[in-house]
Amino acid sequence: MTAVKGVEAARPPLVSPAVVVVCVAAILWAVALQEGGAAARYPAVPVALATFLAIQLLVPRARWNRDRGLGPGNVAGLLFALQLVVISTLLVTSVPFPGTLGSIPADQYVNTALMLQALGYVCYAVGYVAWTKPVSPKPLLLEPGLTRVIGTSFIVIGTVGLALQFQSVSALVAYFSGQGDMSDPSPATLSSAAAQFFRPFLAYGVIILWAARIARRRPGGRMRPLEVGLVVLALAASATYHYNRAAVVIPLLALVTAYSLFGRRQSPTRIMAFLAILAVIGFLFGQYRNFYSGTEGGAINPANAGLDRPEATFTDNLQVYGNGPQFWATIVQEVDRSGTRHGDTLLGSALFTVPVLGKPFRDGSGPTVYNELIYGEPDISDQILGLGPELYWNFGLPGIVVGYFLLGFAVRRFDDRVEAAPDPLAAFSWSYCGTWVALLVINSIAVLSQIVIYFFWPVFIMLFFAYLARSQLLAGSRPPEVRL
Questions:
Q1: Does residue 168 belong to any structural domain of this protein?
Q2: Which of 49, 317, 330, 402 is the most exposed place for a label (fewest CB within 10 A)?
């Protein structure tokens, strides 16, 4: 048990926030029902609210846990709350936002989609509590000198990747001044492939040094200027991926979790305020990015780029990025018309972003066929196909049941490793990887595959170094063999 963890006994998971949020949502639904309109069209909304509340009341382990910061389990819980409580309430208090859909599918399909999301949460919760075997704590921080060498080596590798990507200081300055290249092509040359694979080492190397400092000092204090500087540098390194917000947000959530466990515990109120600020900043930056990319950096008139129309609101973005039921409904409608695909898209989705090897599978992948379904042509691929809809498209109800059970099981194992982490680097690493897995609640198989292929290598290599170190220690502690 760490020093911070030992300051106070573990407290029971919170259920009151979920009860309050669902009660507020239920009141809004009841008011909307009295006024008529959309509330009567979507009878699945109260079922979604009741399902979320029932899981929160009956499965304590699935509640918000104050001792894990923004660990994978808490993140997954927030995402299910977003889908089943927040977005379902928006369906009846405003209107479903179509996003890039030509039109919202019929109400029966939206209701079915919302019921599938509720079923997914139930199966997730079962998987989350299905296996309670404890995880043994395994440190990632090694002997201080060796840790510094590894961290510095990672920084050098990442700096090489950064140099290959931007090729000049002026290009890097232009990027961080908001005038960078918005395109994100797959690696086409050896140099671009190296840049893609090497850059994650920079952020992770800085985090290794940050974690080593946090582990050495007494817990409970605020971060010192050098530690804050290391965090800023790590986030800046993570921000070099064509203005992708998730590339910065996910390591930031993992850093908050590691610091809450080993530095200074963060209260749920403070974490919620932090998430609210992060959401607003992310929304504002998204608006800027859409304008900048649409006008090609100001080269095209906004009217000619179609940007003079009303922009999507904050709640509209919640529906899009939360993978609302109207987007699931597109697949539900397609299954009703044409049946399931019997697993045809899964391999293609998993290999979608794999360089060279994945190319033959892309035409039949989930993202490709989904975008073709939306746009009616195969050459546009800008919308993701969420895990849930893809499972349903391939296997129907059994796909949702099995897939979400396995998702709950995987998130629980990552969550347990965060809880058992003996040092800040282990807490960060397991939280970082587990949070990407938890994002499958709203994200796609193809996106997770891309993250694992390009971003997880520093963690994999650090795990290997830690394994070697533990093996050497064990070998040194064994008595000498007695030969007869």
A1: no
A2: 402
